[in-house]
């Protein structure tokens, strides 16, 4: 059997890896439009801050390593069209501008997504950058040490925007962070958390410009110099656009069924509208455990999980994509946070009636001093007030307690209730935590409040 895999990021890599794990003698052709396979954009901040020294190491595998396993790896070659009836693809070799057809028995698309460009004048000016992929990582690294860059404007205050702002703040630049939403990280955390993080960002020379819409980029001599919003103008030697992503699927129109936002429609086995063609990664939706519906959740964990399941189905197994909780985490200077599932701020958008409880505690008993690691911890638990089902949670502290969110993710997936969580068994040792885990404390308080 011949399998063609298109795209080499998380989903594509895991598909290839999954096939090799079960049937290593399968003929696999793996295509990447760029000249570098499996770069991990989620590791970009570590490279930009110098924690990781070599940009070429921010990857899962090299082409040479995969070829040694029997995979035919093609870089700088783009699959431009698919003929499902003939089971063929057209490949454009970007090095010599030649084209050819390749046959397949099974085809897996990991088309991914590309940075969304803000549709305003001036987007083509020099020094208007994105923050996704190896090429942009190299360019951004140069700007962290460029003495002519003093004012950096980041458009978009989600995860990538926050990472960009922190990188350039640590590089000694003045950063302006613009977002159309009223709070940074508003889609990921409720206000109890973002209020604290907003103060932290301000303390690190990051000016927050929430609730503003970018109207234009203006420049001098072809290079950006100002970002204009509906409320103000900001001097900008460098602009970094992080205002979302869009699926890389325009080339699939008319071949596969797409949603109105361009996502590839897949069933619960990750099969597309055409036989023997599967799709994984950021250009698809995944089943969302709190609601039972599908949702676009662009996370590496989801793409890797999809890739492994696609591999199993390609090889003849019968496996459905499991529901996910949408768990993620990030550090913002000294703070570490994680969230999963439904939040108070996303409940209505997901058609869910919810209630939340917010608690604060310390990570260890009061007798443990702060210099020994004892820190304040913030935790918010979201649940269904009718049947008490756990729907999601958020946690934050200057101590890394983010792993707690994995327990809540499992609670969401297994449909645990407040009653289950209130007295669930977690270990205790004063060097690590408290006798009642903060998850127990929140569930117990929620039950108490519901019975008052």
From TrEMBL:
<protein>
    <submittedName>
        <fullName>NADH oxidase</fullName>
    </submittedName>
</protein>
<dbReference type="InterPro" id="IPR023753">
    <property type="entry name" value="FAD/NAD-binding_dom"/>
</dbReference>
<dbReference type="InterPro" id="IPR016156">
    <property type="entry name" value="FAD/NAD-linked_Rdtase_dimer_sf"/>
</dbReference>
<feature type="domain" description="Pyridine nucleotide-disulphide oxidoreductase dimerisation">
    <location>
        <begin position="331"/>
        <end position="433"/>
    </location>
</feature>
<keyword id="KW-0558">Oxidation</keyword>
<dbReference type="Pfam" id="PF07992">
    <property type="entry name" value="Pyr_redox_2"/>
</dbReference>
<keyword id="KW-0274">FAD</keyword>
<dbReference type="InterPro" id="IPR036188">
    <property type="entry name" value="FAD/NAD-bd_sf"/>
</dbReference>
<feature type="domain" description="FAD/NAD(P)-binding">
    <location>
        <begin position="1"/>
        <end position="307"/>
    </location>
</feature>
<dbReference type="InterPro" id="IPR050260">
    <property type="entry name" value="FAD-bd_OxRdtase"/>
</dbReference>
<keyword id="KW-0676">Redox-active center</keyword>
<keyword id="KW-0285">Flavoprotein</keyword>
<dbReference type="Pfam" id="PF02852">
    <property type="entry name" value="Pyr_redox_dim"/>
</dbReference>
<dbReference type="InterPro" id="IPR004099">
    <property type="entry name" value="Pyr_nucl-diS_OxRdtase_dimer"/>
</dbReference>
<dbReference type="GO" id="GO:0016491">
    <property type="term" value="F:oxidoreductase activity"/>
</dbReference>
<keyword id="KW-0560">Oxidoreductase</keyword>
<comment type="similarity">
    <text>Belongs to the class-III pyridine nucleotide-disulfide oxidoreductase family.</text>
</comment>
